[in-house]
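#struct-pred

JT: dropping the chains for the assembly here, can someone run the whole complex?
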Amino acid sequence: MPKRDCNPHCLGVGLNHRHEIEAEIIDRLDELDLLEVISDNILQDEQVGEPLRRLMRDKPLVLHGVSTSLGTAAPLDPDHLAATLQAVERWQPLWFSDHIAFSRVGELDVGHLMPVRRSLANQQRIAAKIRQIQQASATPFLVENITYYFEHGDEEMDELSFVNGILQQADCGLLLDVNNLHINAQNHRFDPYEYLAGLDLGRVVELHLAGGFVRDELLIDSHGHRIGEPVWELLRHVCERAQPRAIIIERDINFDLADIFDSVARAREILLQTEALAA
Amino acid sequence: MALTTLIQGINDAVDRHLSPADVVHAVRPIVGSAMLDERFVLECAEATTDKAARCLLEGAPYEPLHIEHGRCWRMALFLWDPGFTNAPHQHNTWSVSGVMHNRLDVALYQRDAASQTLNPTQRFVAARGQTGFLVPPCIHALGNPDTTAPSVTLHVFNDSEDRAQRANDTLWFDDEVNPLDFYRDPARPSRRNLQTVLVLLKALARPAPAGLLARIFELGDARIRLEAYKQLVRADLATALACGDRLAASLGPQDRSRFMQLHQRLLAAHAATAPVADSARAEPSDEQAEYLLQQAVARLVCNSGLLARCVSEGAAVTFGDLPAKALALLAPTVQRNSRRLKILASILDQRLMDQVLRALPLSAALLSPEQARQLWRRYKDAQVDTTTPVVAEACRAFCAACVAEPGPALAEGDPVLDVMRYEEALLRISDRAARHGKSAPVSPPYLGPALVTNSETLHFKRAISPLVRTLRAAVQQPAQTREPALAAWRDQAAAVPAQDELLLFYEAWQDTQVRVLRITARTLLLLSACDGRRSLADLPDHLRSQGYALSTPQALAATLDRLAEAGVIAPLVLSTPSVSPPEQDPACPSVTAIPTASASD
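RK: done, full complex below.
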């Protein structure tokens, strides 16, 4: 195993903000190093409640989007982009992010992150959009790998080449969702460790962890179940090779607080053990 | 989209008796979806040609594209010559507009009451496909920023209910210009409309139907005939040749010579390019094909019925209109992933159902999981080819479907149906307010009281409001006492006799909480008359004309005071009106704004 330098800039481990457990987050704020907030939920400033405002002021903050729809074969929605950039300007997060996916096509909002056909043209189009966002904001912008349950009939490359190409062409950071990687490896039968060996880990800025469940032989990303052991193992493997600045535990349903905060502690322990977190 | 679909959509919005701001927000997306649709353009052209024929051949009065007399709105196409800009004018009724062709320059103004001058406040250019709206009062001037090509816009205008008031619906600030003069000779606007539809038909991807172009040719003057003829060359050469001969025969020697040169050139160009043009139309760009693929896949995972059909009959049948390039991408995706797509569609469906039930906590508390599943299944099964992935929209559609036809899961008249409608109305009002914001309180030159932006009235079969209050208390109880409390509520609800209840759902402009008020039909009528343009002195006569006993302005003022106290009515601003105000009764007391009291339902 190659020896790495300890990352002095690592912030630690945090949670994605959910209104349902806002009170508990406030109560146990000391156990969190940072907070991730869904940018789409704070686009209208008047809808941001005072408790969340306090949280965003008091804790290191990163923003995460789910509806930029970078992968749609059409220009970015200028209104959504402007609103997102305004929120970034207002709240000054350390970085903001969204997914390599499409979720909106014209008036149709799927409400789900859909896989983009892995073609060179789509890769270039997504990279161009990321560059457009980066040029419009001084705050770094990251992209995240998604869970995909099907592949298109005419894929021109594998997921690894698609993601690496986007990162390189856009010169942006990666939000690596370790659970998504595990799920995709299971569902599409590839070796996640080989994937990581080929991934440009130097671009990893943030990691996401979550749990899933099995449905009809498919592993489904739920953000509502315990994080599986294979995901923890993958996390350790990544932390031994990359220098993430933050880990975020994602939980959107089934708010088992003991499990959530245990996961925060376990992720921090892995960061410390792998020296990814500055002592 | 069919022209009738747009008309029905606007009627539906108008029938909901919304405030002007809510009507335009309901109408705007329908206009946006319709105006670039080829079918809609063709049907507009047909309707316009029919009306022009009646006017020009039978002497019928001029009519715009559509007038809905009973609902007080009209729809018109406007042609903007290159570089033309109209004079600033004020709209005193709501309106929705869209750019169907080219661009439109929009300049907004504010009137300075003291100096009686107009001050420009904003200026922008709307591109093809963009829609806009205005909530009265709005002063603007519109124009075509392009100095070489015409623009076409579609407008939906609200007409004042009172015919006598309609002359004041639009007020022009340039004394020398009276656009209504243009309409004095019905032939002029009719022919202008034929020019307008020719601009739209020319922009279509494929040639317009030859029969339609030939009819326009018959009705037109030389200029219209020339344009119809040019388009006929693309659509039907034989008809074009016949029309060309007739046009040539009607021209003087000099014009005929020029026309014949054009005639020869167009025929040669058509012969050279027609096959290329046909093949180019059939083939979208790679990006368009990708977009169409994404759209089709998105529709499939949002609609398990459509997906099942696509899997069984094949993508080529289900998506028969899809260009070959997009179909070549879609077909193998569906073929190879039918099982996985079904799983994904099922997961998204379950997720949507959970979100809908979470958004309707009172209804969900009254439904057993099995009842909820049955109702949801019934609702989804009826959705053959529509997708409702947005939770608020799904809530609305789900509640509407359950109320319309609950099926075997619920007994007819089960109180949960009223609760569903009640919750859905709350949700809809707050969602609407969140999406569109609220208009500022009324401002000059309004004369009288005006409704707040977000409001809606609903009839219920039983007195639901006190029941909802006790249901909410039951739902909020701890788990161990919740079930007995819900059972007690069911008994209580069953004992309430069926009795019509009229509720006003609204969001007071001062805060963000959706409120509910029990009102009478008379109060509803009073509120609908509070459009800002009627003074308090006008209201008694209005109510009397609708069959209610004559009230004094003072009595109505007292009612309005109570409504203002609840936050339903924005404060009345009495100012010097800028344009020809109706007389106001000096003895009539004004309505005073009172801060909203605490929320009540």
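JT: nice. Chain B touches chain A through 40 residues (CB under 8 Å). The longest strand of chain B covers residues 117-127.
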